[in-house]
Amino acid sequence: MEKRLGFVGIIVENRQRVAAEVNRVLSDHGDLIVARLGLPYPRRGLHIITLVVDATTDELGQLTGRLGRVEGVTVRSALAKTSPPEVPPATPPPSP
What we know:
Blueprint: E1 4-12, H1 15-28, E2 33-41, E3 46-55, H2 57-68, E4 73-79
Antiparallel strand pairs: 1-3, 1-4, 2-3
């Protein structure tokens, strides 16, 4: 199954109660996460986490399924329709 680039939006309603479980799930799936941004939103008493992921549909389903089972956590996700080819890392020029 091919990996595709996508995102996961996570809304956390009671951070003090669920932060440890949310972080445990994210750590267990850390190999899928390309970037993570977390923001408090005090006006609503919420915390928002946005992830950029590189995952198969099955891997994304496992991650979002575990997060969605945590009480007070809402999760939405999407993957790109196609996967662009991977570009190998640039090789530094040889030393003179």
